[in-house]
């Protein structure tokens, strides 16, 4: 009964107070506004006041309606709120000692600004100085231990320092507990971050991001510092762990650390500025990453905070504008202060990838300390290592002239230069390839090299091959290659683009190279469709090998080709697509030496046309004819000739796709000298016995020096008048030797041959010397292709046509 009476009395008092408050509301509102004006330096105004006895019964609520606080110059609000409310109990009201413990602000805003002229409304935060309190009078202190904000917009901007922080607090509840000079605040919030602009020229962080979380904050009042750690918050539903330290003193600084797991890459980019997003959006990661970020710097100074972001990922797929890597793992970091003391802007920012491993279309690559610097004009510094098999390497280089068929390649690729979102960047790579036990095929001529070992080094314009060893069938080679400025020349002046190849070999079988006389094999359509993928210089080398110039310097201790056998081989040959320029060939063969120069062109698929100047010195003529396959004729062969041969020849000839001399293709002239010569078992000479010297042995005839000029015209050899002095007879020969049966040779046999020959070595008397009476014999081709000899009284040289000896009937006597 007593309890009911107390409750009834309490309710009665509240009713009375409610009536009194409503009757005196205007007076109360006036006094509150006056008190606020005396306390605050700006223009503060409360439009209405509401005292409610029942909303938070048994507490009494005082609610201020349409509250504003403006500066006196611009009349722009620092603070506005639709409602500001608090509660207290009836005892405090009776004692006139209002102890405000809670505060709730709804539908309002807070705007602290400094404009471009330097004018700021921050003076509104400092209350007016109060009169000196009288002795014995106690000051009333207000401590609020619970603050709630609903739909409250906070903007802090400084135009001169290009800073702006814009946050819409949808709901916030702060529970405050004071321990000595430290406020322990448990803060739960849900807000929309419109943006954090530490330097507006560089962009805004956290633009339009939903943030929700719980923070345990410590605010040190004397030090004006705020700290929190291990706070859990979500940004767009992604959970983050945060820690921070904010110092609000005059030299205010802050630091913020954020950590999250399994963050989607696209969502991570949304936190950063638009400029950074545009740059990093060129790269995509298909799987989430783990991220840690640190931000620290001054709060109010015109500077950009230090930003460092680190991330890790495993078994991911990285897509870039120039390549895609799968099964990749790496650590990465971004920071905006590469050089301390330099402004923290894009030019001083960098991205680093470390411990990178990934699969690049079949090639497993790894790299450390991959850097992208100067994000205003990005520069990439990358070095990748890989050990891969030849088929994967062949697919990556996709060269048209060279195929990597089998083997292992230890590859290093590097690049230091502008970063572009263009696949052409791959063509600017430089690097080295160490080849182990490789099989490489030169596609145009189908030459397959085995046991390949050595180093290929290349950059954008140069290529070199060092200590490269390989085999082609029985031939073994050591190769050095230099291609200086090859890439640049292929773009500006292809005629100057050249690769110099130096080859040494203990033994070469030239038969292994017969395919060089075949028509260039065209690349398969499958390889053509792929197009160039990697390394401009290698691509240019590809172009040079097919369309440019290859300078081949070759040295060999021993070379063979069918019957040909030589030593001390040296050559310099320029290959230009289907044309060759033979600057020099020298070798020792058949006991003497041979040098040559000339050119080779390929007019058709099955033929090469060669123009060659050859100098032969003191070679064994028998071996020479044998080694050169009788020079494509069978009139006089190595079975018949003996002696030391010296000659200068300028000839043109055709070479078949098999490397043989095309029949009847030789034209030109040969000036020769045969010393210590002999003609053995030469049937046409032995047939002279039908006319003269029947009792002499002509099977082994030794000669004085034979000298003459032979003019070769396809299937005809024009023999200029030639003196032949031998141990058995003297003769003078001239005419045409036909390779196809059109021979017409005039032989002058002086009658002095009837005398006895001495045993001394015969001596020449001169091709135009008077030798006295002579018998003339004509050698012509018969219908059976064999040489026929007949006496003649005509000294004319006429070619014989089929079925007609072209001589008057009375001039000759058949034998």
Automatic annotation (TrEMBL):
It comes from the Bacteria. InterPro entries: AsmA-related. This is AsmA-like C-terminal region-containing protein.
């Amino acid at each position: 009964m007593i309890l009911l009476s107390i409750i009834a009395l309490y309710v009665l008092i509240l009713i009375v107070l409610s009536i009194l408050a409503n009757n005196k509301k205007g007076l109360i509102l006036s006094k509150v506004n006056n008190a606020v004006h005396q306390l605050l330096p700006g223009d503060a105004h409360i439009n209405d006041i509401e005292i409610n006895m029942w909303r938070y019964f048994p507490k009494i609520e005082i609610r201020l309606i349409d509250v504003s606080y403006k500066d006196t110059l611009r009349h722009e609000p620092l603070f506005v709120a639709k409602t500001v409310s608090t509660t207290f109990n009836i005892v405090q009201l009776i004692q006139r000692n209002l102890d405000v413990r809670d505060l709730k602000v709804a539908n309002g805003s807070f705007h602290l600004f400094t404009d471009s002229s330097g004018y700021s409304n921050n003076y509104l935060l400092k209350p007016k100085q109060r009169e000196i309190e009288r002795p014995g009078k106690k000051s009333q202190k207000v401590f609020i231990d619970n603050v709630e904000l609903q739909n409250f917009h906070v903007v802090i901007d400084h135009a001169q320092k290009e800073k702006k922080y814009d946050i819409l607090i949808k709901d916030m509840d702060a529970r405050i507990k004071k321990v000595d000079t430290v406020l322990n605040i448990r803060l739960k919030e849900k807000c929309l971050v419109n943006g954090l602009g530490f330097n507006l020229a560089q962009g805004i962080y956290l633009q339009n991001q939903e943030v929700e979380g719980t923070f345990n904050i410590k605010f040190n009042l004397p030090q004006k510092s705020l700290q929190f750690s291990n706070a859990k918050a979500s940004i767009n539903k992604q959970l983050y762990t945060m820690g921070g330290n904010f110092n609000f003193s005059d030299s205010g600084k802050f630091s913020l650390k954020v950590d999250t797991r399994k963050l989607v890459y696209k969502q991570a980019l949304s936190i950063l500025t638009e400029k950074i997003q545009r740059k990093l959006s060129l790269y995509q990661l298909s799987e989430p990453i783990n991220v840690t970020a640190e931000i620290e710097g001054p709060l109010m100074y015109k500077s950009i905070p230090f930003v460092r972001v680190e991330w890790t990922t495993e078994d991911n797929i990285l897509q870039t504008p120039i390549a895609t890597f799968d099964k990749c793992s790496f650590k990465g970091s971004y920071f905006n202060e590469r050089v301390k003391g330099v402004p923290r802007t894009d030019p001083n920012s960098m991205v680093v990838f470390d411990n990178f491993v990934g699969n690049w279309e079949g090639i497993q690559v790894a790299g450390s300390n991959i850097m992208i610097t100067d994000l205003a004009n990005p520069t990439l510094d990358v070095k990748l290592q890989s050990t891969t098999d030849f088929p994967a390497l062949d697919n990556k280089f996709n060269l048209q002239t060279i195929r990597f068929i089998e083997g292992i390649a230890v590859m290093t690729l590097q690049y230091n230069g502008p970063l572009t979102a263009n696949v052409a960047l791959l063509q600017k790579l430089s690097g080295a390839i160490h080849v182990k036990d490789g099989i490489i095929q030169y596609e145009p001529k189908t030459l397959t090299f085995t046991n390949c070992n050595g180093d290929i080094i290349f950059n954008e314009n140069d290529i070199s091959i060092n200590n490269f060893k390989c085999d082609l069938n029985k031939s073994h080679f050591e190769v050095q290659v230099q291609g200086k400025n090859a890439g640049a020349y292929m773009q500006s002046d292809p005629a100057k683009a050249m690769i110099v190849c130096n080859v040494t070999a203990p033994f070469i079988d030239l038969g292994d190279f017969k395919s060089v006389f075949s028509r260039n094999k065209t690349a398969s359509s499958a390889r053509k469709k792929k197009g160039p993928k990697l390394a401009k210089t290698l691509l240019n080398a590809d172009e040079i090998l097919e369309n440019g110039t290859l300078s081949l310097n070759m040295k060999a201790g021993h070379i063979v080709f069918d019957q040909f056998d030589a030593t001390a081989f040296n050559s310099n040959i320029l290959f230009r697509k289907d044309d060759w320029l033979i600057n020099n060939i020298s070798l020792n063969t058949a006991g003497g030496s041979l040098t040559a120069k000339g050119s080779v062109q390929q007019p058709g698929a099955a033929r090469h046309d060669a123009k060659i100047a050859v100098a032969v010195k003191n070679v064994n003529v028998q071996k020479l004819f044998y080694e050169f396959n009788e020079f494509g004729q069978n009139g006089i062969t190595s079975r018949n000739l003996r002696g030391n041969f010296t000659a200068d020849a300028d000839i043109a000839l055709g070479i078949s796709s098999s490397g043989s001399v095309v029949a009847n293709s030789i034209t030109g002239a040969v000036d020769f000298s045969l010393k210590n010569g002999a003609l053995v078992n030469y049937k046409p000479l032995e047939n002279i016995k039908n006319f003269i010297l029947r009792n002499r042995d002509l099977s082994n005839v030794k000669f004085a020096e034979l000298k003459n000029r032979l003019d070769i015209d396809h299937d005809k050899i024009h023999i200029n008048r030639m003196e032949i002095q031998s141990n058995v007879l003297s003769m003078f020969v001239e005419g045409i030797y036909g390779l196809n049966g059109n021979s017409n040779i005039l032989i002058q046999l002086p009658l002095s041959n009837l005398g006895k020959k001495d045993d001394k070595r015969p001596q020449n008397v001169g091709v135009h010397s008077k030798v006295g009476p002579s018998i003339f014999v004509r050698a012509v081709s018969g219908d059976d292709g064999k040489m026929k000899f007949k006496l003649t009284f005509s000294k004319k040289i006429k070619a014989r046509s089929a079925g007609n000896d072209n001589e008057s009937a009375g001039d000759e006597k058949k034998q």
